[in-house]
C-alpha cells in the first residue's frame, strides 16, 4: 500500500521494485506468485486444508516486459521509453498505460515504489 505522501509525487520519477516471486515460461511470459494471505497463521491453515497458498497471475507480453524492467535500477520514465521502443505504436498512450499497470501492481502489494529521497 503506498504511503499517503507518495500519492502526490510524480510516478515517472519512481523506481519500481518487485515484492513477490515470479516464474518465466519458455515463451518469455511471466507468472507472478502472490500469496493469498499475508498473515502467517492463515497461510498455515490454508496449507493444512490442502489448498494452494498462492495465486498465479499470468501476464501478457506487455505486462511481462514491464515486470522484467522493474528491476529496482531504472525509473518509470526509462521503463516507458524502453516499452515504447520495443513495442512501437501498439502501446500508445505509453505513460498512461504504464501508470495504470504500475499503480495496479503497487495496490496489490506486488511492487513497491522507491523515490529518490527514500
Could you characterize what this model shows?
The chain contains 4 helices and 5 strands. It is globular and about 50 Å long. Strand 2 (21-24) and strand 3 form a beta hairpin. It has 118 residues and is of the alpha+beta class. Strands 2-3-4 form a 3-stranded antiparallel sheet, covered by helices on one side. A two-stranded antiparallel sheet has the order 1-5. The protein has one domain (11-110). It has helices spanning 40-48, 61-69, 76-87, 94-107, and strands at residues 15-18, 21-24, 30-35, 54-58, 111-114. Helix 2 (61-69) packs antiparallel against helix 3 (76-87) and helix 3 packs across helix 4.
In short:
The protein has 118 residues and is α+β, with helices and mostly antiparallel strands.
Tags for this model:
globular; two-stranded antiparallel ribbon; alpha+beta; 4 helices; 118 residues; 3-stranded antiparallel β-sheet; 37% helix
Amino acid at each position: 500500500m503506498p504511503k499517503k505522501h507518495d500519492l502526490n509525487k510524480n510516478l515517472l520519477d519512481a523506481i519500481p521494485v518487485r515484492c513477490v516471486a515470479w516464474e518465466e515460461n519458455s515463451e518469455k511470459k511471466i507468472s507472478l506468485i502472490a500469496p493469498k494471505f499475508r498473515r502467517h497463521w492463515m497461510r498455515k491453515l490454508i496449507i493444512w486444508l490442502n489448498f494452494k497458498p498462492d495465486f498465479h497471475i499470468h501476464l501478457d507480453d506487455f505486462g511481462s516486459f514491464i515486470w522484467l524492467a522493474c528491476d529496482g535500477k531504472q525509473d518509470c520514465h526509462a521503463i516507458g521509453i524502453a516499452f515504447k521502443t520495443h513495442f512501437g505504436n501498439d502501446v500508445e498512450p505509453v505513460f498512461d498505460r504504464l501508470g495504470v499497470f504500475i499503480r495496479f501492481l503497487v495496490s496489490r502489494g506486488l511492487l513497491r515504489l522507491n523515490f529518490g529521497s527514500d
